[in-house]
Automatic annotation (TrEMBL):
This is 16S rRNA (Guanine(966)-N(2))-methyltransferase RsmD. It is an enzyme of class 2 (transferase). It comes from the Bacteria. It holds the Pfam family Cons_hypoth95. Keywords: Methyltransferase, Transferase. GO terms for molecular function: 16S rRNA (guanine(966)-N(2))-methyltransferase activity. The keyword Transport does not apply. InterPro entries: RNA_MeTrfase_RsmD (IPR004398), SAM-dependent_MTases_sf (IPR029063). The keyword Cell cycle does not apply. Its EC number is 2.1.1.171. Residues 8-26 have a biased composition (Basic and acidic residues). Residues 1-26 are annotated as: Disordered. The gene is rsmD.
Amino acid sequence: MRIVSGEWRGRKLSEPQGRDVTRPTTDRVREACVSMAESALDDGIEGARVLDAFAGSGALGIEMLSRGAAFAAFFDIDRGAAALVRKNLESLRCGRERYRVTCGDVLAHAGRGRISGGPFDLVVIDAPYALGADPAVRLLDALADAGMLAPRAVALCEHAASDEGPRPDRFEAEREKRYGITAVDLLRFQG
């Protein structure tokens, strides 16, 4: 798996061992996510504050950092995944002031208003497909309730193409793209 664009374009990222814990996002879908975020954010990705929830290898958040995001908070409940995100960021020599990796339940942290680095301009959600839209809806509602979203923040929600995408209150669906078995919804915060 390689970084698709930006400062670290072409650099290799370590991938998770085994597919039972994480399902890496394909290069094609990551490139689509970067393009969608770039066009949807009022000032583009440059300088944005990003939350990569359910981070896995961290590839989506790292793509945003590579394109000039000012900061990215990475969350994964799996210790191995969180360690992999740290390893990938360290291999790129990304300055520690530009990221924070947390091993923990992003839904619980958001529910308590305890995610540092916000307010976020961009939230990237790639929850396990088997959980459906519920984690994305709960996370976005909690972030909005806690004031952790910038005005006109954008959420990119990856989900199985066969499932309905998340539709939380206070968000408007602006776009949905399908890539085989994967779909990505772009949602805009209306708060």
